[in-house]
Structures are given as structure tokens and as C-alpha cells.
Amino acid sequence: MKELICITCPRGCHLKVDEENGYEVTGNSCPRGKEYGYNEVTNPKRVVTSTVRTNSREYPRCPVKTNGAIPKEKMFDAMKLLDDIVLAVPIYCGEKVIENLFDTGIDFVATKDVQ
Amino acid sequence: MYDVAIIGCGITGSACAYFLSKYSLKIAIIEKKNDVCCGTTRANSAIIHAGYDPIPGTLCAKYNVRGNLLTKEICKKLDVLCKEIGSLVLAFSDEEKETLKELYERGIKNGVPDMEIWDGDRIRREEPNVSENAVAALYAPTAAIVNPWEYGLAMAETAVRNGAELMLNSEVKSISKADGGWKIETGSGSVEAKYVINAAGVYTDIIHNMVADKSFEIIPNAGEYYLLDKCEGERVSHVIFQCPDKNGKGVLVAPTVHGNLIVGPNAVDSDRDDTATRTASLDFVRTSAVKSVPSINFRENIRNFTGVRANADTGDFVIGFAAENFLDLAGIKSPGLSAAPAIAEDAVRMLKEKGLELREKENFIDTRRHLRFNELSDEKKNEVIARNPLYGRVVCRCETITEGEIVDALASPIKPVSLDGVKRRAGTGMGRCQGGFCGPKVLEIIARSNNITFEDVLQDDTGSYILTGETKNGGAK
Amino acid sequence: MMYDLIVVGGGPAGLAAALAAKEKGLDSILIIERDSQLGGILNQCIHNGFGLHYFKEELTGPEYAGRFIKMLEGTGIKAMCDTMVLAVTQDKKIHCINPTDGYQVLEAKSIVLAMGCRERTRGAISIPGTRPAGVLTAGAAQRFVNIEGHMVGKRVVILGSGDIGLIMARRMTLEGAKVLACVELMPYSGGLQRNIVQCLNDFDIPLYLSHTITEIRGKNRVEGVTIAKVGPDRKPIEGTEIDFDCDTVLLSVGLIPENELTRNAGIDIDIRTNGVVVWENMETSVPGIFASGNVVHVHDLVDYVTGESQKAGRAAAEYVKQGMRSREHAISVNEGKDVGFIVPLKIHREAMDAEIFFRVRRIFETSAIVVKDGDKVLAHLKRAHMAPGEMERVKLSRSLLDAIEGDEITVYAEEVEE
Predict the structure, then answer these.
(1) Domains recognised in chain B with CATH numbers
(2) What range does the domain containing C3 cover?
(3) Which of B12, B416, C175, C264 has the greatest number of C-beta atoms within 10 Å?
(4) pLDDT score of B272
(5) What is the mean pLDDT of chain A?
């Protein structure tokens, strides 16, 4: 039995995941908690947020995020990929910055309009 | 060969530079730090004492009352905030009432004008937040509050504008006799001068010992303070002292010229540069202060700081020639801030007696203007913004300091190289957020103005870097 | 010109208030923002976790703000950026300056105060030691790292476990710094549980509960800190010291509503929290002047700021169109046992409903929030878990309000049997 705190939303439900019984999740208050509990024990994933350089003087960085959770152990590798990027303004929120990270189908996208 | 070299640019050195720059002299001011007035001058009670405290006949007594007068004149001329709000020394017992009488007598002997002894009712009427246990007070109307670092800075700036040469980042390593004067080796080169003034604050004994046998010793003594937010600034309207004891004037409570409340100091022996704060000291300050003013709300504290007094083991200021044409202005403890201009005035006289030729400059600049946006009338505000739109952008929201004022500070005669340097000139980051909001913005303006990278902007002295590098280091620049 | 509404502050609170007032029919609305862009502090909160309640999806701070900024398009709501409000008066005049228009006095029929909050600093908690560079609030560090793109240090100790501190622990780590410890005075964290997990645990950053920094060392730049365990009196216990070699101390030791404008205007403020005292419709002690968001109380979630600010915007519209609500027979809301600062402190009798927000003072497991009218229990709401880091919310319907006989109600928290 593994005890976890759900991080899907700020509520922070205390979950129990039974590894011996098909990863049954209890303590969740929504279906997303169930999914989190299962994933956290079998294949933990995280959304990564960071910034990239821009060519703007006024706004030298543009915030970005992965548009889905990527495997937790890939977080630092994902960060490294951002080092080589310089976005040219205008940048639009939602614009893809790096596509298909580690073949996960997840992209880094801009999270702000920068003019 | 300089006519005069001044070692140390605190309040004493600044005052000497200012007084000497009235004459056609080649002056060098040698300062170890990257800015002026960064020692005791920036960490003290910010009080211009009336002068009843020093024992008659001492040098402290001699210079305090005269200094009080001169300070007000200088602050007026050089646009430095200084307010004559008067001081009260509280007595809590009959015994302390006797002390008040003694102080009053001393004041008379020292030439302090217009003192009064107040009874409890009068105290309550004038200062409703003072403790009900106060039974009497010595009122001295000539005591004033001042912005101490701007005071020193204004005098140093004026000296520089009148031709004095300021050498920053120049720690004195050794001093030797030279042909017709002294040769001073500093970390950044050597300076030769006919006359030398030793105004090195807590280091005056070390400088003295470079040219003469040991004759006094500085026993550094630390005092710690609270600075409270402006909502506490009207808690009292005079400088409130307790009766002095063997440790000095004790813990005071006073408004500052910026509208805050200052509370402190204690007195403990320390190292020359040890400006750390300690829980025990601060607890002592708090406990002592509420004896005078019980309602102080210490939850409104915005900063603690420690100043180190340059107490000499002689118990008085040490003023005199250490060697030929080498003048010590040492042991400048409290009331040193008040006494500084009188000491400088006398130092000039003493040098003259030793043959320094004084010819007054015809074009001596004896004014200085500091635009404080927040204090302007609405019309004036519009006028200055129309002239320079940067006055329309508030950078420090707590103190309402505009970008225009920061740019002014960066273009002033002694250019700041750090956030604290700008703070001392423009007042940014002095308020309740302590630079949390404006710090990044001020840093950017300094970098832009001084044409340096963000990483090169300092918090304060050399080595006080703020940023450690850019993010996304691998990215193409 | 006379505006229907001027909103002071263009962060999430101000944006939501302006939009809601527009929806309720106000025409001329002006938002005044001191920064060069709208969005407030959300612009530097680049992490995700915003909007789950309001948008039902997980957004980053800039995305959350961006959605509201987009909503302004076509509404005719004017935004004046790079403008600092110097004073607000009870007769609803706003004194402000900016580089292009200079100093001006604007008039409005109603005002919403939405200035947000600021961080407590080192001075507020009097940490002993030297005063070197490298001691900064987590929010200032966040601005340097996320907006300016500069790192503030390499080896970091964080004091306080508020959310910004936790978020910065992760940010600094991802950007290559080593976060050595997060030190919390209280026996529990002041931040959200999820942030403990994904910002500290994910990176093996130790959380020292019931500890504090007892000394900062370093002459020009931080060279190290000492932490120590604290007893129940929150004073350090001798002999429990741990030294850390670090170059940076980040402070996340609480937020204070930024109410200098409010105080100078003579509007009532709670002296303990510095929050504006408001009615259930976010009206302040001065009719026609409303307040919402972190100037009232420090929220845990921006979604609630939005909801509360919409209430303020709607109330401003109602005030302009129909005049003020009667303040007679008002219902006072009192803080009962283990309940911190409550919002609102007063409810108009004519209110259609009222939402009560507060934080509990300690951790509760199986428990209940109780609302009492004298001896009568008005509401008894079960909670599985309550913590001071999270805001609690109780909604009182019109029928419940009608049932109140006295002129005050009390809210408290208590443990209950499962």
C-alpha cells in the first residue's frame, strides 16, 4: 500500500494505492485523483514550466510549459532542450516551442503573448 | 603632491573636505569602500544633539553645540533633510529628576539655548504616547533629526564639485614620510600630500599607528536599531531619550526625517566591522524602548541594523597632531554626527596654524538641489514630468521615488554603483517592502545607466553581488 | 470626465472586477495599473495550477491572466498602464501619475481597490546576523528568474514554506541551483500540500518543520546560515543548530495586503492582518468604494480572487445604478474558536446570499465548520481536513440569512466524530 498526496488540484487529497490489488486507488474525491494515483505509482509524470529566451529587450524571457505531463525522470532533460532556443517576437500564447518531446507527443508551448 | 589628503570619507572626512574645498587647495579624499559615508555615518540614531550631555570642558562639549548650529546651516544650503523637532530626556524617579537638573546645568555651561524642565502633565500634553511613569523631562528645542548619510554625501559631493578628488576603493596600506609631506600607499595607488587628516572612523587608531607611537585605542562599540514603518512614525514627535548612564545616552525613540520611527541603540563592545544584529541586543532595545513609549508596535518593523561607534579609550574625541602636519580626528563617537562640522571648521584652523595657505575660491559652489518628487506640489509635479517624463514613472512604490530621481542619483557628482548607493541618494527601497518590488527595476536602471551587465550591479560594497548569471546559459546570446 | 468605475490594479482581481461591472451594465470603466502590462503578479507565476475551479482546466499564471486580458477586447474598458495611483479619497477622486499624462486627478462614481499584497521581509521577522546581498524575498527572486532571466544564487536555503517559496524551490532547482533546505517555523507548512509534493519531495529537498534561521553569515554576500529547532514558544532550542553553506536565503514568510492607499483614504482596515474590512458584497466602510482580492485577505487560489472580484464589480454596478445598500440591521460576522481573519465582517440584511471566507488557525482532521446565531446552529459543515495554508469557504443562502434572528453570527471550527 502506497500513500500519496494528490497533486492534480490544490485540494491535496490523501490517496492510498494498493499495488497488490491492481493498483486500486482510494481516498480520491474525483476521477482525476484515481488516474493520478495509478500513474504516480506506475509511471510518475509532471508538467514542466520554464522560460525561453526571446529577442525582445523589454521581455527577455517568454514563459513556456509542456502541454501535458511528461515522465518525471525526463524533467531535467526537457529543461536542457530549452537552453538552445531563442524565440523571435511576436510570440503567441499556445505557440509550439519544441514539438513531440522524447516521442511522448507532448510539446513545449509558449504561455504568454509577447509583442 | 596634494595640499591635503583626507583619509576616510564618513561624516568627519566629508565635513573636512567640504570646509577645505572653499579654498584653492588640491584635496584628495581617500576612501576604502566603493561609496562614501558607508560606516558609522549610515548606521546611527540620526540625531543632531542639543549638547547638554557632554561634560563641560571636554572636546565633545566644545564641538557639539557649535556643530548643532552649523549642521542646520549646511543642511539648508545643501538641501539635506533636517528637522529641528527638539528632544526630551525622561526621568522616571526622583533620582533621575536630579540627573535632569545636572544635565540642565551642563547644558547651560555648554551654551545650549532655551532648555526647559517639564513636569508629567506637560509631557503628556505634548507627547501623549510617552509612558505615564515619566515624572519629568528635560526639553531641548534645538535637538534635530537629520538624514545622516545624505548629510555626509552632500558635503562630499559639494567638495567634489569644487574640485576635491575622491578616490574610492582605496584602502590605506601604509604611510611614510615624503619630501615635504606624507606618502600614502593605498590598494589602488599612492598619494602624496603636504597635510593629512586622519578621519578613518573605527580605524583611526590603526592609521595613527602608521605614523606615530600608539597614544589611544579605538574600542569599537556596537549599537543595534529597529526602523519601523511610517504608520508608527507619529508615535512621538520629539526625540525621546532616557537618562544617560555609564553606557551612554541609552535607548531613544524618535521619528526620522523620512517619517519612520527609529528605536535604539544598545551598547556592546564589538569588532570594527561587525554590523550583525543579535537577538539578545534587539530584545534589550525593545524592552528598554517600551519603558519610554509603551505603545510602540514592533510588528511594523521594516529593518534592523547595527552601527559601530568609534569610541576612543580616552573617553573623549581625540583631536590633535599625531605627527608633523598629520592631524587625527579620532574617537568621533556620539555626538560625532552633530559635532562633525565644528570639528572640521577647527581642523581647518589647526592646519592653517601649521602653515596651510588658505585662499578663498571666488567661484565656490555652496548649493545643492535634491529633487524629491513626492514633496512637490501637484502643479510642480506636472511641471517636472513635462520636463522629463521619467519623473512620471514611480519605481519605488513604498517611498514614491520616480525613475527620474534614480537617474538623477546616477548622474550625481559621486556616482553610485550599487542598489544601496542609489538607495542612499534617491531613497529607493527604504520603505516597507525593502526593495522587494523595486530592486529588480532599480538594478536594471543602474545597469543601463552605468553601461554594465546586470550581474555587475552590486547590492552594496565590493563583493555584494546580487545575480549569479543568466538562466538558459546554453542559449545563443 | 466622470468614470462609472475606476479599478485600482490590473491584476486578476482588478480585471475580474472590471469585466463583471461591464457585464452588469457600467459604461465607462478604467483600470489603472502601475506595471507596463496587465496581469499583475500572475505574469511572474509561470508555474501551472491556476484556473482549475474557474476554467476547469490547469493553466499557468500568464495564461490565466491572458484569458482575462483577452476578454477586455471589445468591451470598451480602458486600461492605463505604467500609472501609479498616489492617493484615493473618500469622495472618489483618484490622484495618479504617469510619464505621458503627468499628474492628474480622476473622478469616478465607484471605485474597486485591487492593489494585491506584498511579501513580508527580513525586517518583519528580525532574523539576526549580518546583512549581506543574497537575502531576498521569494517573489523578488521569482521576478529575477522568470521575467528578467537572471539567477539569484547557486546554493539556497528557503525560510518559510509559503507557496511562493515552495514554487521557487522547484524553479531554482530546475534552473540548476541546489536548494539545501526549506525551513518552516510552524509545525506545519503554510503552503499547499501539492506544492510540498511536487516542489520539495520530487527533488529530495528536506523540509524542516518547527525550525527557523538563527543566524545569517557573510559580509558582502551570504556565506551561510544556521538553523535551529524551535520549541512550542517558537524560540530556538540550544544544541539543535544545523549549519548550511549557502549563498542565498529566500524568504517566504507571509504576505501582507498592500493597503497604504486604503489607510490614507481613511477606509477601515483590520489592524491585525492589514486587510480591508468589507461587507459581503465587498463594499468597504466607505459606500461606493469596494475592495477585492489580496488587499482584503491573502488568498490561496486565484480562482477565488476572481470570484470575489466579480462580486465587487457587480456590487459597484449596483451602487452606480441603484444607490447604496442600507446598512441598517446589519449582521456582524464574528471569528469563533480556531478561526482566523474572516471575510466579510458584515452582511447587509438585503443580501441575496453571503460567502464567508477564512483560514483555520491549526490543522484539523475530521471536523466541522459551525455557524451559529446565538445558540442556534445555522450551518454545520463537515470537512475531512482543514489546514491554515488553505482557505475555507461557507456559503449562506438567502433562506439561511433570513433565519438569522440576532444581529451577529459566529463561525468556528471543531473536531467531530467520524
Answers:
(1) 82-144+219-312 (3.30.9.10), 373-456 (1.10.10)
(2) 1-119+254-323
(3) B12
(4) 94
(5) 92
